[in-house]
Amino acid sequence: MINEEIQEIIGKYVAAYNTFDMEGMMSLLHQDIVFRNFANGEMNAETSGIQEFRELAERSAQIFSSRCQTVTDWLIADGNAEVQIDYEAILAVDLPNGLKAGEKIQLKGKSVFEIFEGKIGRIEDYS
Asked: What is the domain count for the chain?
């Protein structure tokens, strides 16, 4: 798969994520998708398979009234992509950590994508 195809798949995924388009996201994922989220160096979420991913994605979508990932840099090699991400979201609900509905969250991080059989087979988010 050439770099432009990988970039197109990831770009479509990010666009679907930003617009809460669950079906659009799922259409780009391999059936055996593995997802891991790391915050402050520790893994705080992991899913295996498209159904577990969907359940986490649907729960997560309920937390935000808006969200936007912006890719700021790309590194693509051997079917893998590492993208630098600026993330901004508005909370729809109060969180246990004290953040309140209506507050804005801004983060910088990176996401690592691995492509299998023309679909996203692994996503690791780091913030």
From this structure: 1
